[in-house]
Specification:
Elements lengths: L3 H15 L16 H13 L5 H7 L2 H4 L4 H10 L1 H15 L5 E12 L19 E5 L4 E13 L4 E8 L8 H5 L5 E4 L7 H11 L1 E2 L1
Parallel strand pairs: 1-5, 5-6
Antiparallel strand pairs: 1-3, 2-3, 3-4
Length: 209
């Protein structure tokens, strides 16, 4: 499906089965484009791999583009982050309702080239959230930035994800998994080998790693 309107209508229909709320922000003036419609628009752009707002507003149908300006869309989308995260979790739970097998993995998120890491100021405001150097075994490279950790179903529906410093070992993400999964099988590569973690997950949550 490559038609934005048909994808948008389907996603909006699914969102309305999850929540009856149409507005999530307290606004004095009622906007032409409801919050639930803006979220559906954003999800549709992600589904269709539209990664820039310029491209998004070029393909928007007249019925939507006449309801909101690009700058307003950007501001409201940022304010609706928590609402979108809530709906994402509900969608994931809905799609994964009968899943028993999941896959856990990580990937590097490079902020800047290693040679410039000493001079860059990107995301260095706070030490706890600042990027650092890490090693990616699958690509055999040292990089500067963060690491994305994620768990998805065998059909590719993401159930959980997080971001850490690049130096954090994959195995530490299993602490988060313990609080989110139970009675299932999670498949991982050699980076997640740990007898202690395997035993703890199985005894506490009946998760087979």
């Amino acid at each position: 499906m490559n038609n934005f309107k048909s994808n948008y209508d389907k996603i909006l229909e699914i969102l309305k089965t999850i929540t009856e709320k149409e507005s999530f922000l307290n606004q004095i003036r009622v906007p032409k484009l409801k919050d639930i419609e803006l979220i559906a628009m954003n999800l549709t752009s992600e589904y269709m791999s539209i990664d820039s707002e310029c491209q998004l507003f070029r393909v928007l149908p007249k019925g939507l583009i006449s309801k909101i300006e690009r700058s307003v869309y950007n501001r409201r989308k940022r304010k609706l982050f928590l609402a979108m995260e809530f709906l994402r979790e509900q969608l994931s739970t809905k799609f994964n309702a009968f899943e028993n097998y999941y896959i856990v993995d990580s990937m590097p998120l490079e902020v800047t080239k290693l040679s410039r890491s000493g001079r860059t100021t990107i995301c260095k405001e706070h030490y706890e959230t600042a990027p650092n150097k890490g090693f990616c075994a699958s690509q055999n490279m040292v990089y500067y930035g963060y690491k994305i950790h994620a768990v998805c179903s065998l059909h590719g529906v993401f159930k959980s994800f997080d971001i850490s410093k690049a130096s954090v070992h994959d195995i530490h993400y299993l602490k988060d998994i313990k609080n989110q999964f139970k009675d299932c099988v999670i498949l991982g590569d050699k980076g997640y080998l740990s007898t202690d973690y395997q035993l703890d997950l199985f005894e506490s949550k009946q998760v087979r790693l």
